[in-house]
């Protein structure tokens, strides 16, 4: 004897803020609005251009088929009395994967985090799943935030994981197992610091043109010889996306050094190696756009980062390191002016942009006891 078909076989799940339920014809107007959202088009495989008939087919044919055949569990997400998006857990076996999409007017309110927690809990407790996998286009920071908040282990970037609209794409990946707590595994490293002339904030994609200019500069490339060549917008976006991933995994915090008056990117500074073998330690790295050099701005920015990194209410580190190449006078001066002590030299470890090799000078600063 078989059970009831869709929509009677769709369990209604709620945490008091969001409700997961079967789709209805009343959802189609907002589903179509979501399908036309630029971020939805950019980050998902949704067909585009998208028609009302396509939204109806997905909600009222594709989703019901998944429930009836046992291949996927797809819910409409309801928030404040209106359709807010979709969440689905796909796969017949113990290993499944999760997908989700949210209407633009419901973003930034924790809606999808709550929805994914409900769906994944049902998949484990009621549907017998053992592992739920997550993947998203590299750069889809909204999806990454949901996976992070829901307790997914963040594995890394898998090349050539996705094919969408004829494009083969790299993907961020993660997974959660039955019994795992649905809470963040790491602290997302994201803060804003202000000084007299600067605002230090997370990197944005709007910073890419200035990143490209700085990383194409001969002086920058001389001391950062591992930069891609040529360095274009794709490389700049990759740098920004990489900063978001490392923020989520707790391994690195990167700040855009921005002018307080117009928010123009002047450079970047990072604290790296925070998940290394020695807890409580990190390394600072930095670079400046050519038009902001010789102004004292880098010293001002790094001072703020050092204070934050050594503060118990900041990164709570006991030791910071700076490594600078012989001949990189500006970088060496920053380290010395901020009280970093030179404790050694590594000979022949600094590869330069002209193919030459020089020494690295090692600096450290300890938190006052």
Automatic annotation (TrEMBL):
One Pfam family in the UniProt entry: Acetyltransf_3
Keywords, in A-Z order: Acyltransferase, Transferase
Family label: Belongs to the acetyltransferase family. RimJ subfamily.
Protein name in the entry: RimJ/RimL family protein N-acetyltransferase
Residue stretches making up the N-acetyltransferase domain: 18-175, 198-369
Coiled-coil zones: none
InterPro entries per the UniProt record, alphabetical: Acyl_CoA_acyltransferase, GNAT_dom, N-acetyltransferase
